[in-house]
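Fold this sequence, please.
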Amino acid sequence: MLGTDFILDCLSKENIDYIFMVPGGLIDPFLPALGRQSHLKPIVAAHEGGAAYMADGYARASGKFGAALCIGGPGLTNTVTAVAAAQTDGSPVLLISGEVSTYIEGLGMFQDASSQTLNDVGTLKGLTHFSSSIENPKNLPHLIRHAMIHLLTEPKGPVHISIPQDCQEAIIEAEYQRIDRSLSHPDILALKAAKESLEHFKRGRNGSPPVRIAVLAGAGIEHAECSNDLIRFAENWHIPVATTLRAKGVFPEDHPLSLGVFGYAGTHHSRMALLDNPPDLLIVLGSGLNERDTMHWMLKLTPKNAICVNLDTIAIGAHLTGGSVVGDAGAYLKWLEANSDMIRPSLESTRADRKSWLSGIIAQPRLQNPENCKSKAIPLHPARVISDLRAALPRDGIVLIDSGAHRAFAGHYWESYRPLTYISATNLGPMGWAIPAAIGVQCAQPNKKVAVITGDGCMRMGGMEIATAARYQLPIIYVVINNAALGNVWLRAHQEGPVPDALTTLPDFDWAAFSKSLGGNGITVSRPEELAQAFSKALQNKGPTVVDVKADKRFKTPVEDWNIARAAWSFHE
């Protein structure tokens, strides 16, 4: 078979259904190759960055990986931010780029970005788990296999393969064999460290069994697909659970043991349980312990009061000198369940006191200014928009959150009940990410309702991909919290004088009309009582619907606890 057919056969055998792409001269041989197969459906994006964001969204929603195809040079450089976002969030994205034939590299060929010129492979080396060029058709089978192993092995992330045109058109005398699932889903666990962690359940900081025990669940719970194991562990021993913003939804937020999100845009309940009076034992599962996961590093972790489980040794080693378990969060939870007899005596003896401790927390207000969810303000309050959208979207509906002030409002006021139903690029946070990513999500979950919470600043960056959603008649609801400003930046900048104010203020565009011009649907909402009807209509529409909500930029984001922690923090203490 030809090199192009070999690559598409590889993707088919790895059981993905879509490839997101922008056609161009350097990948021309892929176009007839796509017509020679029937498993992969190509989705043509408006921009290469959009295609890579779509692949990212597909990966997150499907539990598989996403694939994007583009030309090298300008096409590849358009994907750089998308690849970086996938890297920082551990999202497996395969980027395939076309390149000039190997025998004319460095001769001045149009769009040559080989190692002899711009070096596409070098550009992506620092942003991926693996980046390589196929310099000889005979290398194609084993280098593709190397790329797939890097793509599918934990901790996951993006990989890149550059395919010169002569390799695309070469005859490949090999057949791709699917990567063994034991490589992509290993139950890695350092048993010695796991056994030592049992001592934390028996003796707290004062030598007696710990009473106040809490879990902080990170994205590792999602990656390990062990949400049910976490729920079972929490219920068995009556242990409350907070999640990071990245992991929102891995523990149902309406569960009696839920503390909500800890860190940026977090709840008062999580702050009280984890920070105000630190627990006797904190079990951190699959969190990178970055600034936002730890409330601006205010979360104090010591070998005496914390167990940190993570596959990334750097993530735990940089923040904790002991009490760490290198391993998969799911493997650790299963191991604890198998060894429950070892921890039962101390956990049973402290159950009543733990219930009393938790009930004291739950009795306090959970959210900051919950009355905002029913605000009648005109222009609209973002919390009201988010509350009404939550009421309209089914319980298993999927919401994607873009980057901006709306991220804080959504993180705080949206209630999430299942894994992979609250999706956001939380670590790098590129503006406009959610608009194309939702296309990948809808492709991965065609029977689920998908909505996006974005802003007018984000629409300026990623809004053209509404045309892609319209082209493929994807029924995504795009809720634009249109405050005529770069919201988060404006909240800071307008206090610095008229020039910063002006620089962060935007003209009020008609985003509903913009959507209609691209083949989508559009609804404008100017009053809060119009929200429910707008969302109901959008849920019934064919193709995408942009709901342009005229919102007020002056409302402060619900990050009061975060701001207090940031003001109190010192690196030297």
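The longest strand covers residues 93-99. The chain is about 40% helix and 15% strand.
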